[in-house]
Amino acid sequence: MYETCVVLFLFRSVEHTDGQSVLTDSLWRRYSEFELLRSYLLVYYPHIVVPPLPEKRAEFVWHKLSADNMDPDFVERRRIGLENFLLRIASHPILCRDKIFYLFLTQVFFFYLADSRLKALNATFRVKNPDKRFTDLKHYSDELQSVISHLLRVRARVADRLYGVYKVHGNYGRVFSEWSAIEKEMGDGLQSAGHHMDVYASSIDDILEDEEHYADQLKEYLFYAEALRAVCRKHELMQYDLEMAAQDLASKKQQCEELVTGTVRTFSLKGMTTKLFGQETPEQREARIKVLEEQINEGEQQLKSKNLEGREFVKNAWADIERFKEQKNRDLKEALISYAVMQISMCKKGIQVWTNAKECFSKM
Amino acid sequence: MEGERRASQAPSSGLPAGGADGESPGGGAPFPGSSGSSAVLQAEVLDLDEDEDDLEVFSKDASLMDMNSFSPMMPTSPLSMINQIKFEDESDLKDLFITVDEPESHVTTIETFITYRIITKTSRGEFDSSEFEVRRRYQDFLWLKGKLEEAHPTLIIPPLPEKFIVKGMVERFNDDFIETRRKALHKFLNRIADHPTLTFNEDFKIFLTAQAWELSSHKKQGPGLLSRMGQTVRAVASSMRGVKNRPEEFMEMNNFIELFSQKINLIDKISQRIYKEEREYFDEMKEYGPIHILWSASEEDLVDTLKDVASCIDRCCKATEKRMSGLSEALLPVVHEYVLYSEMLMGVMKRRDQIQAELDSKVEALTYKKADTDLLPEEIGKLEDKVECANNALKADWERWKQNMQNDIKLAFTDMAEENIHYYEQCLATWESFLTSQTNLHLEEASEDKP
Fold first, then answer.
1. Is the same domain home to B211 and B99?
2. Is residue B286 assigned to a domain?
3. Mind listing the pLDDT tens digit for each residue in B303-356?
4. Which B residues, 66 through 105, put their C-beta within 8 Å of a C-beta on chain A?
């Protein structure tokens, strides 16, 4: 089944280092192409907290809201989410310079990047000396995900109930109208009060539609939690790699030492064959020591570069995490404030409708 | 129908100063929910020997109207309301104050039942004392209603709360049920006290004043159960005939009653549903605030904002609880009473039709010489009087009832609107103060680059 294509009308000025602005035409992209872009960014910028995509399927729906991916409201919210995703990349100091990102925005055909490193993201392994900061970050991201999910679930239920309260009042409208037909003195008051009940009942649709946008803002950070975890995993991967390399090096060094000194502490296949088939010649031993020494040298170089790589990663990652934290604090605060603004608007509408209704009732 | 009325047409809201019935928290107000405005006409028609003072028309001025739109928040103790009346310096129509309170459970070997304490304060001469305290159970109320219907078949007797509610009732004596019933019984007695005719009914007086054993022995007098049943059967049979010759105005009345009954039943259902939805909304909201507190535990920079949001949500939660209780105190009992009233009215129509049918059958007998015709003209004369009395009684009471209904409904819905306004105003204030505090903080902080 084909998804609806999401149209992007983006007028982008992509600023290159030479200060040139390029205006591009619009082009069409599907949701899955956005997913490809993100996977690429995850792999090639392991230390960056990569902005998340909006949800693939509508989740945390309250029953009146459609769970259908083709629903126009859902499509519109997804469009906003995708736009937001691109804007976040465009405003990221490092990601905005990425060539593939530029191609995504400009080229019609976007090639698939099958990279083995993508698979590594999902592997499981144990790290002996985990970096506390990353462990804490992982815990934080777990907490963030759990609390936002909970919040979204309850919000959806609250929205459902609120919908019920408003809509039932609409029934008053109908019955008042019918009743007014048999009342001489009360009739007018009833009729007009009924009208206000209808207004009240229908006002909830817009109110809850607005609240969906607030929910989307929270959802983005729900998915950001996953992005944070991805950075932690990448760090773990590097750490594991490092530990394995160090372990390997240590074992080789020990082997070498034993060969040189003649003591056998470690098990080796050579040791076994010596026992079975007789001692090896000094020339043979010399050859073996030489090979090992070469390998040890190589190993030490590799370990050095891995250590360097690791430190670079940590430095860059924490820089981006700090940036992310500030962005998160700003965004969430803004979202909470916008929630308050929505509530205020809802209250004002309520006051108006009920004041009108009260006037009608008192005139009955 | 309106022509002959001399009674005051002043816009009485149906309530004396002091707030609506059934809103007072504990003991219940000694004020009925309606005023008698067609009292004078009633006296003429029924030719009863009444004390003129008691029937003075109660005319309200506008200032009193404002008093009636009390916020239900105001304390409405019976004492404060009595004081209010005295302060108003009004014509003292009310000389019978009744409260129903203190439900008590009684357990015997055969059954368990609840009694209610009924306190009566009066200045009327025909009462032996000025204050009475008795205990009555629901059965006793049923008896009283039956006697009133018997004595005044075409008057609109106030309805009693239902015997029991079939669906949703787990335990017959849960607290909500008892409280709802108590309020309704209180209303019932006060409506009778307010009624220009019924208030002087002898059985009513005995109900209010007699000790338990006195009441029992009094109850035993009067027609037995079987004869009453026989009457009912005859009544049903003959009322069918009465419908054919029903005068035009009663046809109109009947149509109104049928439609009104439909509509008020719907409104009852809708109102109950709204209460249910509000309750469920409240239950969900209770969970919503605390999640923000939980979240604040893992966010250093957003702690204050999140905690403030949580407290705003909690305050709105409390406001919604108050709105709910306002609904159940003011609107729901009133609407439900009128549901029961509409059933009552249909009964009254039937009885009127039955009385007419009696006359018609005798006239028919005379016309066709079916039975012994000597005594018939005299009987017919008596019956004609009876029919005219019954019709006039109903007509007058109907007008009174309609007026009260309009006032009660108007007040109940105005109250509901007021509750909602108050609710939204509270929530608005909460969120606005949150917003102010946030923007103040924001202005204090150094402006950062925005993405």
1. yes
2. yes
3. 999 999 999 999 999 999 999 999 999 999 999 999 999 999 999 998 888 888
4. 69
Encode B70-93: b = buried (16+ Cβ within 10 Å), e = exposed: bebeeebebeebbebbeebebeeb
Asked if the C-beta of A34 comes within 8 angstroms of chain B's C-beta atoms, the answer is: no
Q: Looking at the structure, do residues B384 and B445 belong to the same domain, yes or no?
A: yes
Number of inter-chain CB pairs under 8 A, A vs B: 147
Q: Are residues B214 and B249 in the same domain?
A: no
Count the neighbouring beta carbons within 10 Å of the beta carbon of residue A63. 12
A131 vs A133: CA distance, rounded Å: 6
CATH number at residue A193: 1.20.1270.60
Whether the pLDDT of residue B33 is over 70: the answer is no
Name which of A319, A309, A339 is nearest A239 in CA terms.
A309
Considering only CB atoms, which chain B residues are within 8 Å of A183?
Answer: 406
SS3 B298: coil
Q: How far is CA A13 from the centre of its chain?
A: 26
Q: What is the pLDDT of residue B5?
A: 40
Token output for A212: 């969906």
How near does any CA of chain B get to the CA of A166, in Å? 9
B438 and A364 in contact by Cβ < 8 A? no
For A355, name the nearest residue in chain B, comparing CA atoms only. Answer: B421
- B175 & B262 share domain: no
**Six token digits for residue A68:** 């259908």
pLDDT, one tens digit per residue, over A238-274 is 888 888 888 888 888 888 887 777 766 555 565 566 6
Partners of B427 on chain A (C-beta within 8 Å) are 343, 347
On whether any CB of chain A is under 8 Å from the CB of B409, the answer is yes
Looking at the fold, whether B209 and B260 belong to one and the same domain comes out as: no
Predicted pLDDT at A107 = 64
Q: How far apart are CA B210 and CA B415, in angstroms?
A: 38
- Give pLDDT, residue B36: 40
Q: Across the interface, which of A151, A182, A364 has its CB nearest the CB of B406?
A: A364
Instruction: Give B238-286 pLDDT, tens digit per residue.
Output: 555 556 677 888 899 999 999 999 999 999 999 999 999 999 999 999 9
* The token pair that represents A26 in the structure block: 């619009």
For residue B153, what are the domain limits? Answer: 94-222
Quick one: chain A helix, strand, coil %, rounded to 5? 70, 5, 25
Residue B59 C-alpha, separation from nearest chain A C-alpha, in angstroms:
19
The CATH number of the domain holding residue B312 is: 1.20.1270.60
Q: Taking every pair of C-alpha atoms in chain B, what is the biggest distance, in angstroms?
A: 111
Interface of B with A in 292-331 (CB under 8 A): 292, 294-295, 298-299, 301-302, 305-306, 309, 312, 316
Within a domain: B62: no
Q: A329 and B302: CB-CB below 8 Å? A: yes
Mean pLDDT of chain A: 82
- Residues B252, B165: one domain? no
Residue B396: what pLDDT? 92
Structural domains counted in chain B: 2
Reduced to 3 states (helix: H, G, I; strand: E, B; else coil), residue A157 is helix
Dump pLDDT digits (tens) for B139-149. 999 999 999 99
**Residue B54 — very low, low, confident or very high, per pLDDT cuts 50/70/90?**
very low
pLDDT higher at B21 or B321: B321
Better-scored residue on pLDDT, A121 or A359: A359
What ipTM does the predicted assembly reach?
A: 0.74
Cα A15 from Cα A18, distance rounded (Å): 8
In a domain, A153, yes or no: yes
When divided into structural domains, chain A yields a total of 1
Tell whether B277 is within 8 A of chain A (Cβ): yes
Q: Is residue A279 domain-resident?
A: no
Residue type at A250 in one-letter notation: A
Q: Do B432 and A336 lie within an 8 Å CB cutoff?
A: no
Flag whether residue B251 sits within 8 Å of chain A, measured between CB atoms: no
Q: Does B410 lie in the same domain as B360?
A: yes
E strands along chain A, which residues?
A: 6-8, 13-15, 21-23, 27-29
Does B445 or B422 have the greater pLDDT score? B422
